[in-house]
């Protein structure tokens, strides 16, 4: 039977130029340039492979492939008329590539594939965009300056020290993630496409390595920063599937230590961190976050059977930065613990958006279970990591930047903790729920307590923003921008508070959240979309383009669709609104119905009742003051989200926090001219801490 190679050799002309071979067309074979290439104004190149060599021994065939790739690497690759043809050529050459790649792996050589010529030539579409060694070194530096441990932690610096031993896809993924922070911002799409091509080639050839899954983790994070949630979730799901195939998701795999054990642990939990913040919350294929409850909240010291060992997730990676004792959970792992609770909060918001809210004051409600889990995890936090112990506000900026590996996860933990309690008690959730369900009567006690908590922790987010800005800390994770956007919606709600002090403070804090969010706009389209959404919410709430210094409303209009967009991170960058996000053919792009955010049918009119003037004696902490809260119920027909009439008015309770909490008014100097608010002026809110010890000692972690 005739071999496949000989059969291919007879079908293809060995006198054809590279251009015609690539397009699989008949070549006139004129020299020095064929008429087909002359007509298309393309460089015409011929190989020096002698006739019959492709049907000869494998060594001749390999020499032919190497020579062909050398032409590509030397900048002699013919111009590509269409990107579709490039992808078609890569697929057609998979059999040839498989031979080259498998030969290297079967020979027992180490994974030093940076100089693997065939992979490099296939991954890059233009030899002029090949990354040089200095560019790769700069990309690695940018990764550790901006992305390391916030939140992903796949490798440490010493593991990337030898560039020659880095896989091709890992190099491209690092550059795709970090080019947004360099002058090569226009090339991140090119690096991402190259990384994806190489990863798919690895999968097709059955040569997936640990660095391949790490590359998917980096690409997923990059897509989430870009607001390309669909593509990011695809990369994340693919990485999880590869982890399952390699059994990296089971504790039993880590019984025996090897040189890559810790790196595998870090990869798995990095993927979990991304899943907690950006993973899918609905759909039958979504993995419920509750399945990991036994890992996050179970008590230690329990006897584990061999059967239980097989079904448990891998242990946390070793990390003693900032720990006082060997038994202390590291700060990065603690951030992952609180991130799991945050994923539960995201599920809770998703349930609220679909009108599935169970009375939150019931002990079997999801609200109560989340608070229980949060308290359980908070109890695992060692004293060495707590706010009062680390004294972040007393640290110098240079010290924080030198020890970023500790302080960035610490800030992530703090922002996550306060965001959890802010979202759980957000008044919007319960105002909308009471409109949909007439049987859900919100008790005054719950209104009062949740109002206190949401404003307390919403204000704490602003305090953390003040401190981060004062220390000039560089944060990149879009979660920080999302937390600021959530806090901004709370302060926008309280801009029509009865108490003039609370009204003024809310306007100030709203402006600070907006300014902090804008810091992420330059490199994160996701945060840019969040900022754009807040702009529209502000315009609808105030009836003007901005909240100025003189704005003192007695009522505001909240856009229901825009509020859900902010709480659920459903904001889509403009360049992704009409596309499939670089993943799906238009025939598979899901049709998502978008509500008109400025129509009267999707707007709530919120009126905060005015309360009489109350004089509070602060000597006893304001305990003698009391204003019973009340909620005015207005008849409203049940409707789906986005179908409420503008005339449905809700009167929020004049809760005790507006008049009975002197700790709220921490620093009068923060009430400055709105036009002159700047992070450089935040020292007054930070320096004289002892004058406001009641505030700083209450509600922190």
What is shown here, in short?
The chain is mainly α and 701 residues long. The protein has helices at 4-11, 18-23, 35-39, 58-73, 83-92, 94-106, 117-123, 133-146, 168-178, 188-205, 210-225, 229-245, 261-278, 293-297, 306-311, 331-353, 366-378, 387-390, 397-402, 404-424, 427-436, 444-471, 478-493, 500-518, 525-542, 560-568, 574-577, 657-660, 693-696; strands at residues 555-559, 603-608, 649-652.
State the helicity in percent bands.
40-55%
Largest sheet: 3 strands, mixed
Give the number of DSSP strands.
Answer: 3
Q: So what's the overall shape?
A: globular
Number of helices: 29
> Which ranges are low-confidence, i.e. pLDDT below 50, for 5 or more consecutive residues?
1-13, 49-57, 75-128, 304-309, 595-600, 609-696
Average pLDDT, all residues: 74
- Widest sheet: strand order? 1-2-3
Whole-Å distance between the termini?
Answer: 75 Å
Strand content: under 5%
Structural class: mainly alpha
How many domains?
3
> For the CA atoms, what is the radius of gyration?
29 Å
**Assembly form of the protein:** single chain
Descriptive account of the structure:
This protein is mostly helical and 701 residues long. It folds into three domains: 79 residues, Zn(2)-C6 fungal-type DNA-binding domain (CD2-Gal4, Irregular); 214 residues, no CATH class; 365 residues, no CATH class. Helices cover 50% and strands 2% of the residues. The protein has a three-stranded mixed sheet. Helix 16 packs antiparallel against helix 17. The longest helix has 28 residues. Its main location: nucleus. InterPro entries: TF_fung (IPR050815), XnlR_reg_dom (IPR007219), Zn2-C6_fun-type_DNA-bd_sf (IPR036864), Zn2Cys6_DnaBD (IPR001138).
